[in-house]
Amino acid sequence: MDKQLFDTQRNHQNIFYRKLSKRTLLTNWLAILTANLLSPNLEAKTVKKETNKEKNTSRNIHEYYMRLAIKEGKNVPKYPFGAVIVNRLTGEIVSKGYNQSTHNPILHGEIVAINNCAKHKIKILWSELDLYSTAEPCPMCQSAIEWAGIKNVYYGSSIPFLQGLKWEQINIRAQEVSDRTPFRNTKIIGGLLEGECNKLFLTA
């Protein structure tokens, strides 16, 4: 009688543990499945957050350099064309310039900055450089940029905006000069701190 009771209890225990094992296995499987389903979403959100952060950091850097160009432009309030040349690999500000056309008609801010760079940075690799200008480079300045081999150009105020204020401007956009230069691949980005740059010319 005791043996039968013992066998019965053991059978109940075996059944219980088998059910428990199945339940545990199912729970673990569901946990793994849920984790796999959620992980891509979490990873995507993390990547998106990092990408937005990188974009914000990049924009802040470009705005910093443009504000230096604005500062250069303020050296001549009546002709607030300022330019800064930056080594984009190191972040070094290699040259600055502002409009000096009252002394020499071709000394626009970009030309002065390029001349200063050539004078003081003889061994510079021009393809590593970016130029920031308070206004869209005129055909003369953009041509000089192409000949120099400067890779990227960032400007604030556009040529059409300056024309609207009755500034004398040759009616050829910087992008057109770049497009007609087959031996270069210059990237031109306009509208950087456009409001602050426009204000310079509105009050000039």
Please tag this protein with its features.
5-stranded mixed β-sheet; single chain; zinc; 204 residues; 5 strands; alpha/beta
What does this structure look like?
There is one protein chain. The protein is α/β, with parallel strands linked by helices and 204 residues long. The protein has six helices and five strands. The protein has helices at 2-73, 109-120, 139-148, 159-164, 174-179, 194-202, and strands at residues 82-87, 93-98, 129-135, 152-157, 187-189. A five-stranded mixed beta sheet has the order 2-1-3-4-5, with helices on both faces. Strand 3, helix 3 (139-148) and strand 4 form a beta-alpha-beta unit. Residues 42-47 have low confidence and may be disordered. Pfam families: dCMP_cyt_deam_1.
Compact overview of the structure:
One of its GO terms (molecular function) is tRNA-specific adenosine-34 deaminase activity. This protein has 204 residues and is of the alpha/beta class. The chain is built from six helices and five strands, in the order αββαβαβααβα.
Tell me the layout of helices and strands.
Layout: H1 2-73, E1 82-87, E2 93-98, H2 109-120, E3 129-135, H3 139-148, E4 152-157, H4 159-164, H5 174-179, E5 187-189, H6 194-202
Parallel strand pairs: 3-4, 4-5
Antiparallel strand pairs: 1-2, 1-3
Relative helix content: 55-70%
Task: Give the overall shape.
Answer: globular
Give the strand order, joined by hyphens, for the main sheet: 2-1-3-4-5
Give the N-terminus to C-terminus distance in angstroms. Answer: 111 Å
Which value, in Å, is the CA radius of gyration?
32 Å
Regions with pLDDT < 50 over 5+ consecutive residues?
42-47
The biggest sheet amounts to: 5 strands, mixed
Mean pLDDT: 85
Number of helices: 6
Strand tally: 5
Approximately how much beta-strand content do the residues carry? 5-15%
Supply the helix-strand structural class.
Answer: alpha/beta
Order of helices and strands: HEEHEHEHHEH
